[in-house]
């Protein structure tokens, strides 16, 4: 089954659809989402991408990320993907969005209008092994320190989004 992405302009206006791999091969701007799920201890659930992923395999990233499907609302796609990838669901709310573009060693290009979605959840995940190697709950301050010392352990979009997430927490 070919997976589709929604091609957009820099204001997130839909321009049509394209096969996911073609969009990544050509560097076409498309819509994406990144889900950040927190628990009551203000720990973030992060996951390590499966080694076999088409890019960024083995890197740590936010709770769940994907592309909304044509004909679905953003949050509808986010809920479906969270269940499929991490094995649970929770209340979700869009927080902010950003544009980014990066080229990977294999020649693929991520060029995404990324919607950051926040949620709260208490409990364990049941990750899909085709998507996820491992996951853990991590306190924000510990994550911030590790991302500064070991930035290459984390996906590009997660590092960008975390800079914005940190600003949401009015911390000194």
Automatic annotation (TrEMBL):
Gene Ontology BP terms: dimethylallyl diphosphate biosynthetic process; isopentenyl diphosphate biosynthetic process
Enzyme class: isomerase
CDD domains cross-referenced by the UniProt entry: NUDIX_IPP_Isomerase
Pathway listed: Isoprenoid biosynthesis; dimethylallyl diphosphate biosynthesis; dimethylallyl diphosphate from isopentenyl diphosphate: step 1/1
UniProt keyword annotations, A-Z: Cytoplasm, Isomerase, Isoprene biosynthesis, Magnesium, Manganese, Metal-binding
E.C. number: 5.3.3.2
InterPro entries: Idi_bact, IsopentenylPP_isomerase_typ1, NUDIX_hydrolase-like_dom_sf, NUDIX_hydrolase_dom
Keyword Isomerase tagged: yes
Nudix hydrolase domain: residues covered: 28-160
GO MF terms held by the record: isopentenyl-diphosphate delta-isomerase activity; metal ion binding
PANTHER family recorded: ISOPENTENYL-DIPHOSPHATE DELTA-ISOMERASE
Family to which this protein belongs: Belongs to the IPP isomerase type 1 family.
Designated name of the protein: Isopentenyl-diphosphate delta-isomerase
